[in-house]
Specification:
Layout lengths: L2 H10 L9 H7 L24 H9 L13 H14 L3 E5 L2 H12 L5 E5 L4 H14 L2 E5 L6 H5 L5 E7 L11 H5 L5 E5 L17 E5 L13 E5 L1 H14 L5 H33 L6 E3 L9 H7 L6 E5 L3 H10 L4 E2 L9 E3 L11 H6 L6 E5 L5 H13 L2
Helix pairs in contact: 2-10, 4-10, 5-9, 10-14, 12-14
Bound molecules: pyridoxal-5'-phosphate.
Length: 402
C-alpha cells in the first residue's frame, strides 16, 4: 500500500460523528470497519462455536460479547444497538423483543420491592397497565402525576426511595409535551423518556440530561409495520448493569427484527419529513373544520405547549389527535374514511386512524382515561407516506358524513 492510499484510508475512518447532522448519522450509524456489506447482515444463528474455553468463559460474562448465544448478544442485534446509541448520543443501547419488553426489563431490572416509581398519567396504555400490575403484585409503589404541569415530577420524588421516573413525550394520545430540560435536571432517580412518538430524528432526550431514552422501534424506527422491536439507550454503566436481567428475562430482540430496524433507520429521515409535513397540513385543515371540536398537534400555535415543543423538537411529529363531538360521530368518521385505515399502530407507510377509548386505551378506568385526555370522540391519526392532498381530501369527505 502506498503512503497516499494509507492516509486516504485513515482519513476515511476519521468520521467525526459529533458534528454530523442526524440525517447523515442515519446513514453512517451502526457500521463497523470489518464489515464491507452496505446492507445490514443477518446472523440468524442462535449459537456460535467458541474458539477456546477461555474465550467461551470471557463471552459468558461480557455484556459486549456477540458470538456466544443470541439471547446474550448477536452481531446483527449489536449493529442495530450501535446505530441507536449513535443516533441518541448515548454510550450504549440494548435492543428488546418489543417496546414492552424494553419497558418491563428496565422496570423489573432496576426496581425492587419497597421502591417507588413516579410516572405521568399521559402514557402508552400498555405501560400504565404494566405499572398497575407491578404495583399490585410486587409491592413497588407508583405515583401517577400530570407530567405536562411544570414541577410535578420533582414534587413526587421521595428522597432515597424513588428509583425511576417514567415520562413519555409527545405523550399518547393527546400529544402533550414534557419539559425535557426540567426532567433532566432531577437528580437521584433514573429518568426515563419514552420517545417513541418523536423518533431520534425529532428529539434526543439524553441531550437534556435524561438517563434513558426508550423506543418501541415497532413503530416509526422500523417504519414498515413488519418488525416487533424495542430499544433503550443510556450510559454504559446502566446498560451493562441491565445486561444480566435482560439475559435472564429473555426479552431479547430477534436478529431478523434488528435487521429490519436497521433498514428502517436508513430511510427514517425522508419518511419522517414526509409524515411530519403531512401531519401539519392535516392538523391545519382539521383546526378550521366545523365538525371538529378540538385538534392537538405540537406544531399548531393553539397547542398549549407549542413553545416548549419548538424548543426541544425539530418538527411536530407524525401523529395528530382530534376530537369530534361524541362516539357516534367518531364511529361514522372512521367508517367513512377510504384511504386512512383503522389500525392501532403508528409510524408506518399507511395513514392509520384509531379510536383510543375502544382500542389502545380500553383497559384504562374512566379516571385514567380522563387524565390521559381521552374522550369518546377522540381520534388519533398516524400519518403515512401518501400525498398530503389525498389524505386531506379523504378526511374532508369522511367529516362531511358525520
Ligand atoms: C407501541 C408503544 C409501546 C409498546 O411497544 P411494542 O413494540 O408494541 O411493545 C410503548 N410506548 C409507546 C409510546 C408506544 O407507542
Amino acid at each position: 500500500m502506498t503512503q497516499d492510499e494509507n492516509s486516504a484510508e485513515e482519513s476515511g475512518m476519521d468520521l467525526d460523528i459529533e458534528n454530523l447532522d442526524i440525517e447523515t448519522l442515519l446513514i453512517t450509524s451502526g457500521r463497523s470497519d470489518e464489515e464491507s456489506s452496505l446492507a445490514p447482515v443477518l446472523y440468524p444463528a442462535t449459537v456460535f462455536e467458541n474458539p477456546s474455553l477461555a474465550e467461551a468463559h470471557r463471552m459468558s460474562t461480557d455484556p459486549d460479547a456477540t458470538r456466544l448465544y443470541t439471547r446474550y448478544g448477536n452481531p446483527t442485534i449489536q449493529a442495530f444497538e450501535k446505530a441507536m446509541a449513535e443516533l441518541e448520543g448515548a454510550e450504549k443501547a440494548r435492543a428488546f423483543a418489543s417496546g414492552m419488553g424494553a419497558v418491563a426489563t428496565l422496570i423489573l431490572g432496576v426496581c425492587e420491592t419497597g421502591d417507588h416509581i413516579v410516572a405521568q398519567s399521559q402514557m402508552y396504555a400498555g405501560t400504565v397497565s404494566l405499572l398497575n400490575f407491578i404495583s399490585e403484585r410486587l409491592g413497588i409503589e407508583v405515583s401517577v402525576i400530570d407530567g405536562l404541569k411544570p414541577g410535578e415530577f420533582e414534587k413526587a420524588v421521595r428522597k432515597g426511595k424513588t428509583r425511576l421516573i417514567l415520562a413519555e413525550t409527545p405523550a399518547n394520545p393527546q400529544l402533550g409535551i414534557v419539559d425535557l430540560e426540567e426532567l433532566g435536571s432531577i437528580k437521584g432517580p433514573i429518568t426515563v423518556v419514552d420517545s417513541t412518538l418523536a423518533s431520534p430524528v425529532i428529539q434526543t432526550p439524553l441531550k437534556y440530561g435524561i438517563d434513558v431514552s426508550l423506543h418501541s422501534a415497532t413503530k416509526t424506527i422500523g417504519g414498515h409495520n413488519d418488525a416487533t422491536l424495542g430499544v433503550i439507550s443510556g450510559t454504559k454503566e446502566l446498560l451493562d448493569w441491565l445486561f444480566s436481567p435482560a439475559v435472564l428475562f429473555g426479552a431479547n430482540a430477534a436478529p431478523s427484527e434488528a435487521l429490519k430496524g436497521l433498514k428502517g433507520i436508513r430511510t427514517l429521515g425522508v419518511r419522517q419529513e414526509r409524515q411530519c409535513n403531512s401531519a401539519l397540513v392535516l392538523a391545519e385543515m382539521l383546526e378550521s373544520h366545523s365538525a371538529v371540536e378540538s385538534v392537538s398537534y405540537p406544531w399548531l400555535k393553539s397547542h398549549p405547549q407549542h413553545k416548549l415543543a419548538k424548543k426541544q423538537m425539530s418538527s411536530g411529529g407524525s401523529l395528530v389527535c382530534f376530537d369530534v363531538k361524541n362516539k357516534e360521530a367518531a364511529v361514522k368518521f372512521i367508517e367513512n374514511t377510504q384511504l386512512a385505515r383503522l389500525a392501532s399502530s403508528l409510524g408506518g407507510p399507511e395513514t392509520l386512524v384509531t379510536h383510543p377509548a375502544s382500542t389502545t386505551h380500553v383497559d384504562l378506568n374512566p379516571q385514567e382515561m380522563d387524565s390521559a385526555g381521552i374522550s369518546a370522540g377522540t381520534i388519533r391519526v398516524s400519518l403515512g407516506l401518501e400525498a398530503a392532498v389525498d389524505i386531506v381530501a379523504d378526511f374532508e369527505e369522511a367529516l362531511a358524513r358525520i
